[in-house]
Amino acid sequence: MDTDQIREKLNAKHKELLERVDRTSKHLYQRDEPVSPNFAEQSVEMENQELIYTLDREGKEEIRKISKALERLDRGDYGHCVNCGEDISEQRLEVLPYADVCIDCAE
Q1: What are the CA-CA distances from residue 86 to residues 67, 73, 89, 103, 105 (Å)?
Q2: Which long-range contacts (CB under 8 A, 24 or more apart) does 93-102 make?
Q3: What is the pLDDT of residues 3-27, one digit of tens each?
Q4: pLDDT tens for residues 71-95?
Q5: What percent of the chain lies above the pLDDT cut of 90?
Q6: What is the Cβ-side half-sphere exposure of residue 39, based on CA atoms within 13 angstroms?
Q7: CA 55, CA 26: separation in Å to the nearest integer?
Q8: pTM for the model
């Protein structure tokens, strides 16, 4: 397992998510336009806001998981399941590089 390549991949994803969370936060908390007086438009805006809140929460959670994975890389225990201690398969880490549990523990 090439830890430099993994670190690079995690850092790139971390940067991408930080940018996305910044955009969603700006949209959520720095609105310039007034609320529409049309009830139907207000409903659509509320649904859009809920979707943006969800994207914001999910982005922040993924950032947290990536940060933890980078900490595990620094400590030298990246790729080991935090539950059972067994190795996490390289295929799983390729798909989900911040995975902290093996597939058996995840199930």
Answers
A1: 21, 16, 9, 10, 10
A2: 93/1, 93/6, 97/6, 97/9, 97/10, 97/13, 97/66, 97/69, 98/10, 98/62, 98/65, 98/66, 98/68, 98/69, 99/69, 100/65, 100/68, 100/69, 100/72
A3: 899 999 999 999 999 999 998 887 7
A4: 999 999 999 999 999 999 999 999 9
A5: 65
A6: 0
A7: 13
A8: 0.78
Q: What is the DSSP string of 27-69?
A: HHH---SPPPS-HHHHHHHHHHHHHHHHHHHHHHHHHHHHHHH
Backbone angles phi, psi at 87, to 5 degrees: -70, 140
Rounded CA separation 15/27 (Å): 19
Judge whether 104 and 84 are in contact, CB under 8 Å: yes
Q: What is the CA angle 51-48-64, rounded to 5?
A: 25
